[in-house]
Amino acid sequence: MTIIQANLTHLDQVATLFNQYRIFYRQTPNLEGSTRFIKDRLTKQDSIILIAFAEKKPVGFTQLFHSFSSVSMQPLFILNDLFVNENYRKQGYGVTLLNEAKAVCKKHNYKGLALQTERTNPAQKLYESLGWKQDQDLQYFWTNQ
């Protein structure tokens, strides 16, 4: 297993995984849109994307977005995406990606990592086993429609 930080040379590999990730969350497949979105992230460098490889095959990724906590006046990462291809789940790829995300956070000396997931996502047990704490504060979201 190898974990690397993606750059534009990995665009097709990450876009394919990102498209699979979106399908997992019941979105219509859209490889063209996925490619455009990931290319924008990599070009603008507004996220850090880590890719997991089994041998030379990309099998998972996580994406970290830069953000800030105004109250603590510190930067933090939002771990917006974590995905491992279903054929490679329960083999340590998710654990390794999450631990590498923690290492990136420490390297940048950021406050921490925030993430959101569906209430029914079985990965919650994984997060908790790696020291993540569920935030009981209320969260609201406004959609611009």
Q: How many strands in all? A: 5
Q: For this structure, what is the CATH homologous superfamily?
A: Gcn5-related N-acetyltransferase (GNAT)
CATH class: Alpha Beta
The profile of the biggest β sheet is: 5 strands, mixed
In whole angstroms, how far apart are the ends? 42 Å
CATH fold type: Aminopeptidase
Radius of gyration: 15 Å
Structural class: alpha+beta
Report strand %: 25-35%
Low-confidence stretches: none
The largest beta-sheet arranges its strands as 1-2-3-4-5
The CATH architecture can be given as: 3-Layer(aba) Sandwich
- Any idea what the shape is? globular
Describe the structure.
By secondary structure, the chain is an alpha+beta fold. The protein has one domain: Aminopeptidase (3-Layer(aba) Sandwich). 35% of the residues lie in helices and 27% in strands. The chain has 4 helices and 5 strands. The protein has a 5-stranded mixed sheet with strand order 1-2-3-4-5, with helices on both faces. Strand 3 and strand 4 (74-84) form a beta hairpin. It is globular, with a radius of gyration of 15 Å. It starts with a strand and ends in a 16-residue tail after the last helix. The mean pLDDT is 90. This is Acetyltransferase (GNAT) domain-containing protein. It comes from Olleya namhaensis. Residues 1-145 form the N-acetyltransferase domain. One of its GO terms (molecular function) is acyltransferase activity, transferring groups other than amino-acyl groups. Keywords: Acyltransferase, Transferase.
